[in-house]
Structure to design on (74 residues):
């Protein structure tokens, strides 16, 4: 979706990315080096909040997926 982060899990965990992203439409991407990203998060609290909301959304989606998968396998 517009304005979403990509690669944030790798940034937070310090590990390699675990997934790829494929755009369905033409899009514009902004690559932010890690150090600059840290500065930006410190200087733009709204970005930090947006990142936390995105992580919470993805965690909820994962929990829902795993719960459904678990109930199907029983």
């Amino acid at each position: 979706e517009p304005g979403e982060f990509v690669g944030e899990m790798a940034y937070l965990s310090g590990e390699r990315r675990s997934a790829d992203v494929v755009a369905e439409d033409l899009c514009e991407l902004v690559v932010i080096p890690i150090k600059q990203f840290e500065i930006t998060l410190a200087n733009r609290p709204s970005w930090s909040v947006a990142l936390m909301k995105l992580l919470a959304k993805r965690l909820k989606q994962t929990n829902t997926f795993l719960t459904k998968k678990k109930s199907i396998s029983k």
Summary: The chain has a mean pLDDT of 88. The helical segments are 8-13, 34-43, 45-73.
